Structure formats: structure tokens, C-alpha cells
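Whiteboard transcription, Tuesday session. T.W. wrote the C-alpha cells on the left side:
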């Protein structure tokens, strides 16, 4: 059990924190406090302007609903990801994808707001959940994971969720743009990690220099 926990520390920690926050939302907080938590953790333009780092971290562990589905989908992606790349590189992949998904989607919203295409209410729109994380994890697990069954499970999860995750993409809705960006980031970063891994493995070891033979006695 200790070896399993060490090998999969990243997915176990992420899923554990998300599950704890879910239980707190459901069992502890009254409805008003739940809405306040979502508003505080949302990666919208208003929150990103004052607390970008804290907001991005908190938003990955708070969801408006469907926490059970998100938990299962994240597990299907994160465990194969940690198995393939290790805990640290798995964190890098999903964290970078989460950040890129947030920045690109909210950046497009800001441009459209400044152009007069959106109302000012877009600044405070609720935007929470681990969906950017699971998008990146599922794509990377399918493309680069080890084992046919794990890869097929990741693909099945991605296909099942894609109609919801990408709904509104043509209208440049924030969530859909963020999901697509996270998927692309997961594929790209996973490919870069795989390339670095192969380059390290392909570098031949430096040949050992044999000590000079002693000169023959005359």
C-alpha cells in the first residue's frame, strides 16, 4: 500500500482534496456559503485581476455540480498519466494545461468584452472545476499512456464528455474554449515530455577509459 501511494501520490492527493471539498460543500456549507465559495474560487476576469495564483489553484478543487462524474473522469486520466510520466511531470502537465486553458479562454473573453461583444457581467461569471485538468489528463493518457485498456478507458471518457465539454465552442464560450485549449496543451506538453524522455534514454553512456597498462620491464 505504501508503494502504491508513493507511485500515485499526485492523483491520490488531487482526488482526495477534491473529494474533501465536495463533502464540505454538500454536508457542511449552507447554500449561501456554497455560492460564495464558488464566486471566490472562480477564475473569472474579476478574480484573476486581484488574485490570479490563488484563484487558479482553488478553482481546480471546487465545482458547481456533477462532482462524482468529474472525480471518476479525473481518476481515469490522472492515474495512467502518473504511471507514464511520474508524479512531478504529471503535475507539470495538468497545472500548465489548467493555467493555459484559463488564460486563453479568459483572454478571449476580455478581448470580446473590450470590443463590445460581451456585457460587463462576463467579469464575474462562475468558472470553477477540475475540467481543464481532466481534459489534459485524458488526452495525454490516451495518446501516451501505457497499456491498451488504460488508453481506451481514457478515450472513452473523453468521447463521453466531449459533447458537454465543447458545447458552445463555435460561440467562443469560456468553458468550451478553455476545455479545447487544455486538451491541446495536454497533447503538446505530453509529447514534449515523451521527447525529452526518449532523448535522455537515447544518450549513450560515456565510455569508460581503461587505465594505461604498465610498461613492460626491460
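and on the right, the sequence the group agreed on:
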Amino acid at each position: 500500500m505504501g508503494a502504491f501511494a508513493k507511485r500515485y501520490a499526485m492523483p491520490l492527493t488531487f482526488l482526495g482534496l477534491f473529494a474533501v471539498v465536495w463533502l464540505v460543500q454538500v454536508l457542511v456549507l449552507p447554500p449561501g456559503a456554497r455560492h460564495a465559495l464558488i464566486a471566490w474560487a472562480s477564475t473569472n476576469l474579476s478574480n484573476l485581476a486581484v488574485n490570479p495564483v490563488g484563484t487558479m489553484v482553488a478553482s481546480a478543487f471546487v465545482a458547481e455540480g456533477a462532482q462524482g462524474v468529474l472525480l471518476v473522469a479525473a481518476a481515469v486520466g490522472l492515474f495512467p498519466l502518473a504511471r507514464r510520466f511520474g508524479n512531478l511531470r504529471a503535475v507539470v502537465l495538468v497545472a500548465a494545461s489548467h493555467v493555459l486553458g484559463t488564460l486563453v479562454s479568459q483572454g478571449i473573453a476580455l478581448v470580446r468584452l473590450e470590443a463590445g461583444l460581451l456585457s460587463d457581467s462576463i467579469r464575474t461569471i462562475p468558472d470553477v472545476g477540475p475540467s481543464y485538468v481532466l481534459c489534459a489528463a485524458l488526452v495525454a493518457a490516451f495518446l501516451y499512456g501505457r497499456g491498451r485498456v488504460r488508453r481506451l478507458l481514457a478515450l472513452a471518457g473523453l468521447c463521453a464528455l466531449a459533447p458537454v465539454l465543447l458545447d458552445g465552442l463555435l460561440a467562443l464560450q469560456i468553458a468550451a474554449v478553455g476545455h479545447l485549449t487544455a486538451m491541446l496543451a495536454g497533447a503538446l506538453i505530453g509529447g514534449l515530455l515523451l521527447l525529452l524522455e526518449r532523448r535522455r534514454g537515447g544518450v549513450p553512456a560515456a565510455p569508460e577509459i581503461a587505465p594505461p597498462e604498465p610498461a613492460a620491464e626491460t
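Someone added at the bottom: Residues 203-210 have pLDDT under 50 and may be disordered.
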